[in-house]
């Protein structure tokens, strides 16, 4: 991966920090919901992520918010036409995947 691709990937993660889980009020990156960002040579993006619970009624809202957030990145809007969001269930999400910030914000105490 080139330095430009790494820098774009970092900016994608930064944009995703603006996507707030509507139920928890914390961004999806700090919640640990983003498993991987895949970029191809045309700058098409595939976001591999999970949700805190199967059957989450807000999945469509979160996916839409991801697409809207990433549309603000000039490179993706110009060259890459595709932002694909893939929701996976393996590995299953648990509270240990949250950042320290998210744990503090939600009052989660580590055992």
UniProtKB/TrEMBL annotation:
Pfam families: FeS_assembly_P. InterPro entries: Fe-S_Maturation_MIP18, FSCA_dom_sf, MIP18-like. It comes from the Bacteria. Residues 9-77 form the MIP18 family-like domain. PANTHER family: FE-S PROTEIN MATURATION AUXILIARY FACTOR YITW. This is MIP18 family-like domain-containing protein. The lineage of its organism: Bacteria, Bacillati, Bacillota, Bacilli, Bacillales.
């Amino acid at each position: 991966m080139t330095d430009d691709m790494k820098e774009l990937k970092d900016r994608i993660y930064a944009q995703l920090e603006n996507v707030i889980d509507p139920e928890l009020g914390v961004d999806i990156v700090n919640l640990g919901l983003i498993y991987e960002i895949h970029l191809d040579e045309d700058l098409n993006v595939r976001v591999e992520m999970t949700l805190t619970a199967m059957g989450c009624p807000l999945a469509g809202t979160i996916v839409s918010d991801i697409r809207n957030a990433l549309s603000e990145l000039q490179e993706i809007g110009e060259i890459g036409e595709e932002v694909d969001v893939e929701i996976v269930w393996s590995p299953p999400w648990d509270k240990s995947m949250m950042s320290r910030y998210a744990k503090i914000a939600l009052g989660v105490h580590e055992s």
